[in-house]
Amino acid sequence: MKWHGRLLVISPHLDDAVLSCGVLLAAHPAPFVCTVFTAAPDKNMTTDWDRQSGFADAFEAMQARKAEDVHALDLLGAFPIHLPFCDAQYKVPSMEDSLVAAIQQTLRDVKPSSVMMPMGLFHSDHTMVANACMKLMHRFGHVRMHAYEDVPYRTMPDIVPNRLRTIEELGFAAQPFDVVGVAANARHRQLKRAAINAYQSQLRAFGPDGQAGLYSSERYWRLRETDAQSNARTRPQSHNAFWTPSPNR
C-alpha cells in the first residue's frame, strides 16, 4: 500500500521514532514527529541511564537529548513536536488524562491523514503512549491509525505476539501493514542510519552490543477498533484497563 497525505509519528522518547520508523520518515515528505517524554523533572537528579549516556544530571540530559532529536529529524526532513512529560526513569507520575489530552491536541493541530504510534512493547512509557493513542481512535475515525514494532524491544522472545493478544483484549484488531517501496530504498536507509548516529548520547548508553539491534527492518500494523470495543465505550468502567507499572528505561 502506498502512503499518502500528512504523516504523524508518535514517539515515547527522544529516539524511538527514528529507531522504529526512520526509513518511513525518510521516505515521506515533511512528516511530523511528536515525542511525549521530553521534560526534565522539576527537581534535578541523576539516573543510571543518564550517566551511561554521558550526562551529569537530568537537566543536562534532557537539554542535550532534545538538541540531538532536532538534528536527527532535520536529517530526515521531519518536524519535531516535544510534549512536556517526564519519562519513567525520573519517577514523576504521568497523569493519563493529561497525556491523552496532549496527544489529542497534537492530532488536532497537525491534522494528519495517517498516524504511526508505538505498539507498546515492554517499556511502561511505550505502553502508556500506545494505550493513550488507542483511547483516541474513536475520536479520529477519519485518520488511518497504525502501530510500529518498538525497536529494540521487538527482538525480545514472544513480546510481539503477547502484545498483539493484549491489544485484541483491549478491543482492537491489528493486521500486518506493508508500505510499498519503503524498505527497498537504499538512500532512505542511509538517512536513517545518519539520523540514528545523531543520538550520540543514546548510542553510548546502548553500548556496542545494544547498538547491533537498532538497525533491524521496520514492521508496521494497521489498527482498527472492533465492534466490541465500540460497544464497551458506552458502558461504565469500574477500573482503568490501561494502567501498567513503570520500569526504568
TrEMBL record:
It comes from Paraburkholderia rhynchosiae. This is PIG-L family deacetylase.
